[in-house]
Amino acid sequence: MSDRAWSTSAPAKVILLGEHAVVFGKPALSVAIGLRLRCQIRPSNVSTLNGISLTQQNYSYVSACLAKHNAGPTAVVTDSDFPSGSGLGSSAAVTVALLAALSSAEGRLREDVVAKEAFEVECEVQGRASPIDTSTCAHGGGILVKKEGSDGLLWEIVKDTRRWCVHDIKVPSMTLVVGFTGKAAPTGPLVAKVKRYVDRSTFARDIIDEIGDITLDGAAQLAKGDLEGLGRTMTKDHKLLAILGVSSPELDKLVASVLPHSYGAKLTGAGGGGSMVALTDQPQKVMEVIRRKGGQPFVGVTGVPGVRIE
Ligand code: PMV
Q1: What is the CATH number of domain 6-170?
Q2: Which of 208, 217, 245, 265 gets the most CB atoms within 10 Å of its CB?
Q3: What pairs with residue 267 in β-bridges?
Q4: The CATH number of the domain covering residues in 175-301
């Protein structure tokens, strides 16, 4: 790495449909939103994250990114518009932004390469993952992941017997309100919990299949600009995710309380805490309800760029 600093940023993401099922190779739909994580790197005597040595603290995503690039001792500084563990993809955003900074320092930044490397890092750290978070943070806009490639194909990612074709999709202007429960929930254990359930239950496998089917319905509704239909599909998805065991009383409470003012609402990301998202044309009202019920609201605007050099 040359002696200068390199700065990048990557957006938060909101999964509209398909989380958890996507880890089993099913489709998923997500959008980047206008909250960003910024990352700066420069050579140093020891590797640090925000001033804390990587040997003192286990920052697994950062360590895995530095190892992937055989980087020498590096000072990494991040700052973010959104909390970590909130279901908005903070680990994906850190991973994508840091890999992009390391690639820029080597003079060869490519969005598809960053997206693939970031997926590998998430798999290493979490044990199991899908490319939905990392591809959305890398590309921005809207992403549909599915088995077969079609119009808008960006790249293809293969792992074991699973294959994901990552597509760029057009996203109409819409308002998403995210409600953070305030309870950070790490993704790895929730993904492992769903895998255990699916391994021993055909009922759980049917739920995974149904989430995959309704995700494609939602993608068609989004393409037509049918926000009412998409909202209904999101609410249905929340119920299926709750049956899989990844919702929480806090998430259920926030979802139920915003539904009278929304097209639909659901948990977003791994669940177990983290955040829910509402699709609404009454963002102020929904924010007020989320606050009243003890959550922290964020408004997410869509149509934002992916990873970029700052
Ligand atoms: O909670 P997040 O933002 O890490 O989202 C995880 C989404 C999952 O489908 C549960 C896992 C994955 O890798 O796709």
Answers
A1: 3.30.230.10
A2: 265
A3: 276
A4: 3.30.70.890
- The pLDDT tens digits of the residues spanning 126-150 come to 888 889 999 999 999 999 999 999 9
Handedness of CA 186, 191, 193, 194 (dihedral sign): positive
What is the residue-wise DSSP string for the chain? --SS-EEEEEEEEEEEE-TTGGGGT--EEEEEEEEEEEEEEEE-SS-EETTEETTTS--HHHHHHHHHTT--SEEEEEEESS-TTSSS-HHHHHHHHHHHHHHHHTT---HHHHHHHHHHHHHHHHSS--SHHHHHHHHBSEEEEESS--TTEEEEEEETTEEEEEEEE-----EEEEEE-S----HHHHHHHHHHHHHH-HHHHHHHHHHHHHHHHHHHHHHHT-HHHHHHHHHHHHHHHHHHT---HHHHHHHHHHGGGSSEEEEESS-SSSEEEEE-S-HHHHHHHHHHTT-EEEEEES--B-SEE-
Residue nearest ligand 1's atom 5 by CA: 269
- Residue 176 to residue 105: CA distance in whole angstroms: 35
User: How far, in Å, from the CA of 204 to the mean position of ligand 1?
Assistant: 18
Residue 268 CB less than 6 A away from ligand 1: no
pLDDT in tens, 170-191: 998 888 999 999 998 888 899 9
Residue 88 CA, ligand 1 centroid: distance in Å: 9
pLDDT digits (tens, 9 = 90+) for 100-130: 999 999 998 999 999 999 999 999 998 888 8
Annotation says 133 is catalytic: yes
23 lines ligand 1 (CB under 6 A): yes
Instruction: CATH 3.30.70.890 in the chain: give the residue spans.
Output: 175-301
Q: Which residue among the candidates 79, 133, 151, 206 is catalytic per the annotation?
A: 133
* 207-246: pLDDT as tens digits: 999 999 999 999 999 999 999 999 999 999 999 999 999 9
